[in-house]
Fold this sequence. Notes:
Elements: E1 10-12, E2 15-17, H1 22-35, E3 39-44, H2 46-52, H3 56-63, E4 67-70, H4 73-81, H5 92-106, E5 109-114, H6 117-130, E6 135-140, H7 148-158, E7 162-166, H8 171-179, E8 187-190, H9 194-198, H10 207-211, H11 215-222, H12 224-248
Parallel strand pairs: 3-4, 3-8, 5-6, 5-7, 7-8
Antiparallel strand pairs: 1-2
Amino acid sequence: xxxxxxxxxxxxxxxxxxxxxxxxxxxxxxxxxxxxxxxxxxxxxxxxxxxxxxxxxxxxxxxxxxxxxxxxxxxxxxxxxxxxxxxxxxxxxxxxxxxxxxxxxxxxxxxxxxxxxxxxxxxxxxxxxxxxxxxxxxxxxxxxxxxxxxxxxxxxxxxxxxxxxxxxxxxxxxxxxxxxxxxxxxxxxxxxxxxxxxxxxxxxxxxxxxxxxxxxxxxxxxxxxxxxxxxxxxxxxxxxxxxxxxxxxxxxxx
Length: 254
């Protein structure tokens, strides 16, 4: 992992993270684009941190990234408990929106990959209305696992500079890491369920719930059958991991 910003990384449960603000993150991405450096970006939240403990492939994929942002109030609070200040969460969906503005201003084209065909089409329609100057080089739905190489070729030949991958974790991290050398883009970021929100299929939690670290609860309310067990298990594991770290007296270091 390359550390090009003057701020060091912090470690939490063995995972390096960049304790940057949204402004610092955007500045770093813009600088790397100016220099023509390839950038693999990832956000880490509680669920991903828990999965990384026993999923070596996911762990390796995250470790390979150039920028590792903290997206999740649970991580911000947990780091504080262990003695490290993370200034703010950099939510993936907010960074995505800011990067679309940046790409519009710079004239850089983007490629969107992921979601169901009807969702990605609605996302495109909404983005074209919201970002009229944005150059969209291409798009593809997220159900392509029988012909990954073909989709990688489509992305490369599109000439896109930024690639956003709206596929669930850990599939998106593993896909990005596997094909990073052949994608032909200068910046790639996993955006999870962002396309569903952009298409109006699911709604984002109100600001007060985001600030209170309750976005997970809002998702459970929207999709109780699918989400309740996932969050119960991951949040419980995270609390236990945090307690063990605290008992060991391991502060997160730089």
